[in-house]
Amino acid sequence: MEAALDLMRRMPPRQAETALSALLSLLPHHADNLLSQIDQPLQALFDAESGKEFVLCEYNRDADSYRSPWSNKYHPPLEDGPLPSDDLRKLEIEANDIFSVYRDQYYEGGVSSVYMWKDDSDCIAACFVIKKDGSKSAHGRRGYLQEGAWDAIHVIEVRSEVDGTAHYCLTSTVMLSMTTESKSSGTFSLSGSIRRQMSLDLPLEDGHVCNMGKMIEEMEGKLRNSLDQVYFGKTREMICTLRPPQDGMLARPLPQR
Amino acid sequence: MADRDEGEGPEISGEQKKEIAKWLLTNAPAGEIQYVAKDVRSVLMDDVAYEAAAAVAFPIYNKAHLLSLAMPDRSGDVIISKFGEIDSESFLDPRTAQVAIVDHVKQICTKVRPATDEELPCSYIEEFRAPLDAELCKYVDETYSKGTCAVYCTKGKDVEGPGAVFEFTVAISATRQSPQNFCNGSWRSIWIVEFKDDLQVVELKGKLQVGAHYFEEGNVQLDSTNECKDSTMVQSPDDSAISIANIIRHHETEYMASLEGSYFNLPDTTFKDLRRKLPVTRTLFPWHSTSQFSLTREISKELGIGK
Question: What transmembrane ranges does the database entry give (chain A) (predicted)?
Fold first, then answer.
C-alpha cells in the first residue's frame, strides 16, 4: 500500500486515472483501500428530468448507477438504490441549492453536487463536489486556457452533537490541470493534486449547511492559495535553479529561502 | 455509501504485469525512475516480470531523458541519447571520441573504449563539429547550473569536402534532484543543425522541454515544451560555431523568459479561469444569510419562475 501511494505521488497527475487502474489490477485485494485513499477525476452526467448536470463520485454510486441530487433518481435507473431519509433529503436539497450559488460565484461556471448519507454510526456525512472545465471552449471566461480542469471533492463527517455544537471533520482533495499554448512560448502545462484535512467544532444553531459551507470555503481558499504560492512556486524555483536567470529577467522576485 | 463489489478479478498474467510495470517506469518524472522502480517492484510482487519490464523501460527512459553519466576514467560525462547510440549498451561521446558502455538499470557507465574510425565523423566534418562543441560547452557552463551537452553528426559524417549536406544534432541536458526537498526537475533541448552547403545555409530546428515536480504532501508537475526554427549562413567552421551557439542561446533565453511570463500570468489570469480567489461579489460567501436563497427559491417556485 505504501509503495502504491508513493507511486501515485510520482506519476504525472494528468495520468492519475491510468495509474490508479494499473494499481487496481496489480493489487485487487487492496481495491477498497486504494479507492478510499486516492481520488479519481470526476465525471458529470445529464439528468434529463431536471435538465441539469450532476457530478458522479463514489458517494452517489450504487452498482453501476449514480443518483442525481436534483431528481433523487438513479441513472441508469436502479430498482432498489438507497435513498436518503426524508429529513436528510431536505437538507441535501437545501445544500445543493446554496452550493450552486457558491459555485457560480467562485467558479463562474462548472457543475456541483452535494450528497448526504448516514454513516455506520448513524452520523450525517456529506460530500460536496465541484467539477469545472475552465478551457476556453467550455467555462473559461477569459479564454486563456487551452485545457483546464478543476475537480474538488470535499467529504465532511459530522460527529457528536452535544451542548449545541457539532464536530465537523473535513477531507478535501483538489485535482487540477491547465495548459496554455502559444506559438511563441509553446505549451505550458501544470497539473497536480493535493489533499488536506481540517476539523472544527461549530454551533448547531447556524445549521449544518452553513457550517459545512464555511469550512469548505476556507479550505478551498487555502488549497488554491497553496497550489498557487507553494506548489507552482516550487516548480518555478526548480527551473530557476536549473537555469539561473540573468539579471533583470525575472518578472517578479523569487521568494527568499 | 454503497459497497464496491468485491471484484476479485482473474489473476493478471505475467505479461500484463510487465506491461503495467513498463508503463509506470517510463512515466517516472525526471530523476525519479529509481524510486519508481522500488515501488513498482514491491507492488508487482513478481521479480521475473519486473526484471523484464526494467530491461525494456530503463533504456527508453534514459534516452528520452538525455541521462548524463560520468565516465569511469574521469574524462567527463556522456549523454545517453538515440543520437549517440551504437548498440543498446554503447553510446558515443563525440567530444572524447570514446564509446561508453552503460548499465541502463543501474544508470552507470561501467567502462569506455576508444571509438573506431567508422563510429566517428571524418576530419572535414570534425572541423565543424569540434568548434561548435566548444562554443556550446562554454554556453552550457555559463547558463546551466549543472548541464551537459554533446554535438553528434547525424547525417553525412563521411562528407569529405564542401558542397554537400550534413547534419549535427545538439543535445543539452540539465537535471536537478533534490529529493530531501521533494523537488526534481530537468531541462532538455535538442537542436537539429543542418548544413546545406550547396545553398550556403544552416537551418536549425530546436525542441525544448522542461519539467519540474514538487511532491511534498501532494503532487504537482510542470510540463512545458516549445519548438523553434532559425537559420544562418554557412561560414568558416569557427564562425559557424559562434553564430549557431548564439542562435541557440537566443532561443533558449527567450523560452526561459516565456516560462517566467507564464508563471507571472498564473495567479491573476490563468488560474482565475479555474477558480477565483474571491467570489464575483469580492466578499466571502454569505453563508449566514443563505436562508434568503431558500426563501427566494420558495418564492420563485410559488410564482412558477423556478428554473
Answer: none
